[in-house]
Amino acid sequence: MTSEAALVLRLLQERGETLAVAESLTGGLVAAELTSVPGASQSFRGSVTAYATPLKQQVLGVDGALLAERGAVDPDVAGAMAAGVREVLGADWGVSTTGVAGPEPQDGQPVGTVYVAVSGPGGIQKVAGLRLNGGRADIRRESVRSVLELLSGELGENARAQDTEQNGGN
């Protein structure tokens, strides 16, 4: 998985941009994956592990009514977490993970329900819903891989769009 983290960090470094991470079910695993790459400090600003639902509101600015109505395992909550950590930590990009790793369902959601999100410059906002199988460790590991993959896809798309603009659309 470190190769995906290394790719994300390389793309961010090439662009001169930074990243912040908001984690719930992954409990710091995304940040650990990123910081395992030498030179991560050039682009990685930091992370917030908002494991308890109230912290999502208090620290990351997720709307309390949204959390009360839908719970923490929700695509809009994931998007708000990514946008919130981006703002709180002053980064160009924010990513988030929220979901149910098990062993019990949470907020009416079955084990393996995960949402990962990316928030970036120019209003970029992407959320992916996942239905993962396996044990707790498998679900958490796949959540880390998925959020890094979602971000690398956005960075790649964004880079291609910038290249097209700079080259006159050719």
Question: What are the main properties of this structure?
Answer:
170 residues, 46% helix, Maf protein, 5 strands, disordered C terminus, 6 helices
Could you give a short description of this structure?
With about 170 residues, this protein is an alpha/beta fold.
Report on the structure:
The chain is α/β, with parallel strands linked by helices and about 170 residues long. It has a single domain (about 1-165), classed as Maf protein. Helices cover about 45% and strands about 20% of the residues. It has helices spanning about 1-15, 30-35, 55-60, 65-70, 75-90, 135-165, and strands at about 20-25, 45-50, 95-100, 115-120, 125-130. β4 (about 115-120) and β5 (about 125-130) form a beta hairpin. α1 packs parallel to α6 (about 135-165).
Number of strands: 5
Q: Would you identify the CATH architecture? A: Alpha-Beta Complex
Q: What do we call the CATH homologous superfamily?
A: CinA-like
Strand residue content: 15-25%
CATH topology: Maf protein
Structural class: alpha/beta
- N-to-C SSE string, H for helix and E for strand: HEHEHHHEEEH
Strand order of the largest sheet: 2-1-3-4-5
